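HOLO CASE FILE
Compound: nicotinamide-adenine-dinucleotide
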Amino acid sequence: MKDFSGKVAVVTGAGSGIGEAIAERLWAGGAHVVLADIDEGRARAVAARIDSKGASTLALTADVSDAKAVEEMVAHTLRRFGALHLAINNAGFPGQREVSTGAYALDEWRRVLATNLDGIFHGLRFEIPAIQASGGGAILNMSSVAGLVGVEGEPAYVAAKHGIIGLTRAAALEYAAKGIRVNAIAPGFIATPEILAASEEERAALAALHPMNRLGEPREVAELAAFLLSDKAAFITGSVHVIDGGYSAR
Ligand code: NAD
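Model generated. Tokens follow.
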């Protein structure tokens, strides 16, 4: 299980859901983990839960839509742990739902793209030089099945999640021979706090979108992330890894 000993990882959106599960898995694997979130209280609570001594975690406030904040997140990581090897650009949110493109609010489009797509670019922009200076590593960007197929009523989220896949492929090509692997994960609906807070009926309807007729678990996504970030995945770059109970096979 100690497959990440000696590695330093940064996880954005680590204060909840999938990011929390990935941070916990990497920490259990022996990594030093920086938990970044727009909500500092959340990041701190997760860090305290998984590492009560605080010796190998650092909780930071960082809004990934703000390039300066992401630059500082990486700088703070280097000051605290002296290197960066693994980065998981996970922070995101769906924004307004059930609003068609012809009626979608212009400022909502900007708000959703700013975190879900600009945020991934900001991560890559500052993580890549730090990972190169640390001798190489791997990056994961969190897309979604909404990055592979259209979903009605959430055009900005769908565009951002498709854009993440293009950006992942472009960066992967640029750094394939330079010691940095870059991949994307595309989950179906995962049982994260927001989804668990929905009514039983709504959850059943979401589960039914998947041929397995259930939601995914954050720890299932974290296991895929751990594999892709590990040396076992040394020949994997520039690809999208679907974890969706069959959702996108239909
Ligand atoms: P979540 O809401 O449980 O956690 C997201 C975390 O990101 C929160 O702690 C939030 O405070 C933080 N965050 C939001 N905006 C931020 C910003 N600008 N800067 C830094 N942190 C920010 O969500 P989740 O379901 O775990 O989602 C994590 C990622 O997985 C997202 O990119 C999401 O689009 C993607 N995803 C989720 C699902 C799902 O079903 N839950 C499915 C596919 C993809």
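CASE NOTES: The beta strands are 8-12, 32-37, 57-61, 86-89, 137-142, 180-187, 240-243. The pocket of nicotinamide-adenine-dinucleotide is lined by residues 12-13, 15-19, 37-39, 42, 62-65, 90-93, 115, 119, 142, 144, 187, 189-190, 192-195 (CB under 6 Å).
CLOSED: yes
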